[in-house]
Amino acid sequence: MELSLNHRKEGDRTVLEVGGEVDVYTAPKLREKLVELVGEGNYQIVVDMTKVEFLDSTGLGVLVGGLKRVRSHDGSLSLVCNQERILKIFRITGLTKVFPIHDTLDEALQDTE
Amino acid sequence: MDGVELRLPPDVAYVGLARLVVTVAARSAGLPDERIEDLKIAVSEAVANAIKSHVRHAVSAPIRLIFGTSNPGFFAVSVTDAGSGFDPTPPEDSAARNWAAESGLGVTLIRGMADAVDFCRDGGMVVQMRFSLTQNGIDARPPCAT
Questions:
Q1: Min Cα separation A88/chain B (Å)
Q2: pTM of the model
Q3: Which of A76, B1, B9, B65 is deepest in the core (most CB within 10 A)?
Q4: Which residues pair with residue B2 across a beta bridge?
Q5: Which residues lie closer than 8 Å to B89 by C-beta, 6 or more apart?
Q6: Right CATH number for A4-106 from 3.30.750.24, 3.30.420.100, 3.40.50.2300, 3.40.30.10?
Q7: B120: exposed, middle or buried (C-beta count within 10 Å: 0-12, 13-18, 19+)?
Q8: Which residue of chain B comes nearest to A94, CA vs CA?
């Protein structure tokens, strides 16, 4: 399944909806999108991963890269993920301590951290 | 180990295909559904590392996967590259990890997802992974041990 990327503004946040498979082949497209969003001045980003079918370490690396980019502008990058199989990947790599991870988009948008 | 052999061109576009084929074989071998996701991740990471190694060293030879039921009760997958391989970093303390590095998470995921994993050098790098076909696999001998 191909990667799908759609973004929209929600107040002062930018929501990036990611769907499909994020792997070593498709992750560069996600990296480009994050670089583009930050380049356009979007520093408060919520990555909605509800529709992600598969995520590998390249995808994780791209998200870490995105986090570093927004932080260099005093911004934030949080994730929406409620799928156990994806959460397990964040746990094993210790990234649950690096990203704020929310169950729902509403919860992520209400988080004022 | 007897099993099905798959040769993949060293192009990351084939990682998805490898994932798909091995997943179908594992399902038919009886790997429980809840372990299929673990298998997908581990195979993807091992195949991606092997392909990246070939690309980095301009090796045009295919990478080789062999997979099937091994010993009673295990589904095994080995991924062999012909390049100089990669350095299998030891298990690390995630709290001490340097998050400035955007790579290096793959081996951590392989170790975290497979029931047993071994990294051998046999020409190139061989990554051997095993997944218990039962919920409580107890045979955790390193798969490379003879």
A1: 9
A2: 0.87
A3: B65
A4: none
A5: B104, B107, B108
A6: 3.30.750.24
A7: middle
A8: B94
CA distances from A75 to A8, A38, A44, B119 (A): 17, 10, 5, 40
Here the ipTM equals 0.90
> Exposed, middle or buried, B21 (CB in 10 Å: 0-12/13-18/19+)?
middle
Q: Does B81 touch chain A (CB under 8 A)?
A: no
List the structure tokens of A37.
Answer: 């969003």
Chain A residues in contact with B48 by the CB 8 A cut-off are: 23-24, 56-58
B4-90+104-132 adopts what CATH topology? Heat Shock Protein 90 (3.30.565)
The pLDDT tens digits along chain A (113 residues) read 689 999 999 999 999 999 999 999 999 999 999 999 999 999 999 999 999 999 999 999 999 999 999 999 999 999 999 999 999 999 999 999 999 999 999 999 998 76
